Amino acid sequence: MGGATEPQELGIDESPGKSVRPATAVMIGFTGAIVIAAIGIGAFMLYSHLTTPRSFTINGSITIYDDNVSVPPGSSCRGIGGYRDIGPGTAVTVSDESGTLLAKSQLQSGTSAQGTCSLPFEIPDVPTGKKFYKVEASHRGEVNYTESEARRGITLQIGQDADRSNPTVSSRPPSTTTTAPAPLATPLYPGASGMVYISTKSGATRCQISEFEVDCQSRFQNAPHVDGYPANGIRFTSSGTRQWVSGDLGDIHPVTLDYSTYSAMSWTIEATASGTTFTNTTTGHGVFVSVEKVSSW
Fold first, then answer.
1. Where are the domains of the chain?
2. For the chain, what is the mean pLDDT?
3. Residue 25 pLDDT more than 60?
4. Rounded-to-integer distance, Cα 264 and Cα 242, Å
5. For residue 188, which of 162, 154, 157, 156 has the smallest C-alpha distance?
6. In terms of DSSP bridges, do strands 91-95 and 242-245 run parallel, antiparallel, or are they unpaired?
7. Element (H, E) at 225
8. pTM for this predicted structure
9. What is the per-residue pLDDT for 5?
10. Domain spanning 55-160, CATH class
């Protein structure tokens, strides 16, 4: 018989598939971590979107100041005569910068004291995220507010004696010169909005004035950019803070100033051909506004 072939030792068969390399395993784990993180971030953003308030409530009041108008005493006062449209149930509306109605409510029962009548209001469900909020009681003119201003509360005043609620004391020292008396200031009174609206003689600049703030709109030269656009507004407070803004005062009905001196609430206004100066008589801070230049102190 031929020689038998020696039996060969059989080895263990290796799997036909390729083994997973350590680097590949790391990449798979890293990718999985990214996916999990993305899911977590997405879930958080969705939760934040769903839980973030999409509306807020505007609280405020409108007060009638006028000794020539009789206001019935008691807890449900209302205006009569020229103010008979102001009383409990009077409509109060909020619109955005384009004039779209956002929310509405009505004046509540008011209280009277010394010839005044103050009626509160509450406007719920006002959408957030608008550039401006225009608030109007009855049909006495809209007043523009930013969202932060509207959230803090709104105070509207109406009447020929509205400025008496805001007495001011001049912080300027008495003049030591006697060669020329100071020019008399022509008073400007706030309307239903509690604001004074003015326009320069040239018509290039419009401003709204409140007790503690002056806001002016114009086509300023060399203005900084705000939100990607050249600023067309300047906001100045009685504390001396100045801020460039981009916006629109809306459909206001300003008083056109001559080149003279005026007073509006706690501000002295000096209008000249070169520009307009607003000085707060309580703090002494002021701002000079012209198309070419804006400066403050």
1. 55-160, 182-296
2. 77
3. no
4. 19
5. 162
6. unpaired
7. strand 225-226
8. 0.43
9. 53
10. mainly beta
